[in-house]
Amino acid sequence: MKRVITYGTFDLLHYGHINLLRRAKALGDYLIVALSTDEFNSEQKGKNTYFTYEERKKLLEAIRYVDLVIPEKNWDQKVKDVQEYRVDTFVMGDDWKDKFNFLEDSCEVVYLQRTPEISTTKIKKDLLIL
Ligand code: C2G
């Protein structure tokens, strides 16, 4: 069974996220999403999410492509996660291109094209003017 992992905040879930998750799952048989915790977001990523970790986790778990959601607590857990969950392929959108090439010692690293035009930030901005 080919195991795939990806990481992110996935706030205000939108079709760009779904496009990423669908293509990530297509690379294997089992998709793990390491979901940024509220603490990691606010303390290290500088992100204040609309939905809490638990709410974002429930949304992700409802997606047919997602098999398991685990917490992403810091920037440095990826090598351990790849080993612990016996991951074959690590996937991220290409806004992260080459940022995680160090994982190539542990698994395949794939950067997928981001969906243009949509982002959580854009949704928040657009809603401000509604
Ligand atoms: N994404 C995408 N297209 C968009 C928006 C997002 O393909 N229009 C992808 C991103 O490239 C990322 C995933 O969806 O692979 C999740 O996006 P974010 O929640 O913004 O993730 P980010 O905050 O970049 O967190 O350790 C890695 C970080 O946790 C990544």
Automatic annotation (TrEMBL):
Q: What is its EC number?
A: 2.7.7.39
Q: Where is the Cytidyltransferase-like domain?
A: 5-125
Q: What is one GO biological process annotated to this record? A: teichoic acid biosynthetic process
Q: List, alphabetically, the Gene3D superfamilies matched.
A: HUPs
Q: Which Pfam families match?
A: CTP_transf_like
What sort of enzyme, by top EC class, is this?
Answer: transferase
Q: Name one GO cellular component term.
A: cytoplasm
Task: Spell out the InterPro entries in the cross-references.
Answer: Archaeal_FAD_synthase (IPR050385), Cyt_trans-like (IPR004821), G3P_cytidylTrfase (IPR006409), Rossmann-like_a/b/a_fold (IPR014729)
Write the record's keywords in alphabetical order, separated by commas: Nucleotidyltransferase, Transferase
User: Which GO molecular function, any one, fits this protein according to its record?
Assistant: metal ion binding
Q: Where are the transmembrane segments?
A: none
Q: What is this protein called?
A: Glycerol-3-phosphate cytidylyltransferase
Organism of derivation? Falsibacillus pallidus
Lineage, top ranks: Bacteria, Bacillati, Bacillota, Bacilli, Bacillales
